[in-house]
Amino acid sequence: MFFFPTRSQILWRQVWGLASVQGAITLAWIIYGAYLPKLLLELGLPLSMGLKLLVIESALAVLMEPVMGGLSDRSYKWVGSRFPFVAIGIVLSSALFILIPVVVIFGSPTEVFQWLLTGVLVLWSLAMTIFRSPAIAMLGKYATPKELPLAVSVVTLVGGFTAAFRPIANSFLLNNFPPMAIFALGSFILLGAGATLRSVQMPDVPSFPENAELHRRSPLIPLMLISITGTVVGGGTRFLMDVLGKLIKLQAGAENVSLIMVGVGIALALLALPAGKIATKYGNQLVLLLSLGVTGVGLLLMGLVPNLLWFAALLVIPAFSAIVNSVIPWILNLVPSDKSGLGIGSYFGGFSAAMAIFGLVFPDTGGISPLMSSFYGTIAFGLAAISVKIATSDSSF
Prior knowledge:
By secondary structure, the chain is mainly α. The chain is 80% helix and 0% strand. The protein is globular, with a radius of gyration of 21 Å. The two termini are 39 Å apart.
């Protein structure tokens, strides 16, 4: 807390509670990704089924994220809280998460159990969409519009720090934990995070003032542009990580890629803190636009001049961290509070669309050169900057 002085404009206990939920969500997906191939093989399913499942799950999230976000808006209107969606989603996800290894342990390589496992996997991914958008939308009540980037930086830090260990998680988890134990641990952590958030919920969370002009504007165009932004940022992210992975492998050796990518992930997480302070001081929209531009230029530089990878990384990593941290406050300040769940869901839905499209178009990224990935990624971040600018201009409403 020394980095963030106590101030009345931010409800810190609630923010940290939400950060714990974000960390638990990220951990659950890491566990899922690590064990999915092993579980599929044990029931006689091909490894290619894993990619198909991820594409299907991303495609379903395109619809589910905005729907759940929108339903949480109605819940907030009717009962004054989004937490019922968060609670239901966490409990359901936790139960299904434990059920995944149970099906494999007590099942056999027959068609019945293969279909049962597939159904449980898809249901779990759908359950995870129930509460992500409603939970993140709660940030709009935890901080004033100006202070939102500072509050979001804590959530970004916890989620990003957890995600940073994804490159080494597979070997570590598979070599040290049986599926039942680690899935149970992930389930209990998710339940514990939900309980933590519930314990800091206030009967009447303060409602910070917002721009009344938002309620007089039609949200249709902003929501469409938010969804488009999610799609192009998602695509740009995939191309950025592809370029980094390939160039690091070429220049540092394949044996060092995972550890270096862990370092990149930790840097992205830690840089969210200064990114939040800078956006609070100089304006979130300005920081978001500049970060999109710098990330696009730096990514193109990586592709054109691979020998400048480390120099370009010094530009791209802080800028990309600022994008991740600034996009949620941008959404929450763009739509009225009674549409914030739908706004966040539209972004996550668009991001999921990018994951689904990427998986279909590029099932094997090995065939894409770093130059082409950097070119595609630069276009994506450029389109994101245009979308953000249009969405926040008065002429677009």
